[in-house]
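Thread: "does anyone have the structure for this chain?"

Original post by V.I.:
We have the sequence but no experimental structure in hand. Need at least a predicted one for the grant figures.
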Amino acid sequence: MSRRAFAVTALSTLVVGGGTAAGVAMAGGEPKRRHASGALRGMWLATVANRDWPSKAGLTVSQQRAELLTHLDTAVKRRLNAVIFQVRPTADALWPSPYEPWSQSLTGVQGQDPGWDPLGTAVKEAHARGLELHAWFNPYRIANHADPTKLVASHPARKNPDWVVTYGGKLYYNPGLPEVRAFVQDAMLDAVQKYAVDAVHWDDYFYPYPVAGQVFDDDAAFAAHGGGFTDRAAWRRDNIDKLVRETAARIKKIRPGTQFGISPFGVWRNIATDSEGSDTKAGVQTYDDLHADTRKWVRENWIDYICPQIYWNIGFAAADYAKLIPWWSEVARGSGTKLYVGEALYKAGDPAQPAAWQDAAELSKHLTFAKDHPEVRGHVFFSAREVGEDKIGAMARVVADHYQKPVKPPR
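Reply from O.Q.:
Generated one for you, tokens below.
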């Protein structure tokens, strides 16, 4: 399922009860990165299920390359300065990896060599255009189906079936296993070792989004590795915390100039759940449901940037953009973590969305609102297809109102 399709599904349950570095200085024993100038203007380029690129599986090398370069050229035309390129959508790779098979989004056949190196090409061509290239990985998702036999025979998930949990009709690696945590890091960081990527980027998938009536079966892992935890939810959060901390440390060792950023679901916790939470009524809370303590990662300076997906319009009752921007700004204030905002360009002009999204000025209003919060250092738009198509002119309006001149990203 594409990220957009998932967001539409997940956010339909948003209302509860039925209603989605450069230098460092030490501060309190934790690294605190220096505040830098510039603003991030990014777009996600999704490859899962051929969401943005390639437009379909099985195109020739020249067709795939031409489409990729068109997306990069569009980013330049829109005066963006970063492309967040999904290179590990489902425990596979868009580069020649010794750990995982080639992505089926390229040829239609998982494990089949496409005849070129998309990530290597993307890094080179993005940099030639003055764009940053952030390599976007999904740590734990194996497949958007539940049949291991559909995976290529050499797939690590087939060789290590005890690593796999089937949940909600999909396959996931079990975050509670130390060997899984080590493997997924090795698989992702192979790309950092080989390519001068400007950032490692994760999206909003940690433990899977809840599926009604189903249980994520990690009983054996908890029994073996949950010593010291009486609360399984706390143990799960600790597993994700370890993945974040360990990955951050390894990135800095492998390629010190590369940043580490995460783009979580926009609500950490609702204020009704936690007095530190946002004034929202979201049906999903990352802390409780995905076992991802996103606020902690910012406050503890474990990551270089956070880019919450604040995919709701100004005035939306369950999760108001105008309430979440101040909340995230307060979280980031005084930390060494840069705050960017994930923007739902894909909703603009979608007839299934509220009336606000039929207004071409809605996203521009978002950027105007965020200007009053200096902690917001930029915006990232989901996603590349809409940046190019721009069916009601919402992106053009953002460019006209806010992006008259090119700027460099913060460093």
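V.I.: this helps a lot. Residues 1-36 have pLDDT under 50 and may be disordered.
O.Q.: and The longest strand covers residues 82-88.
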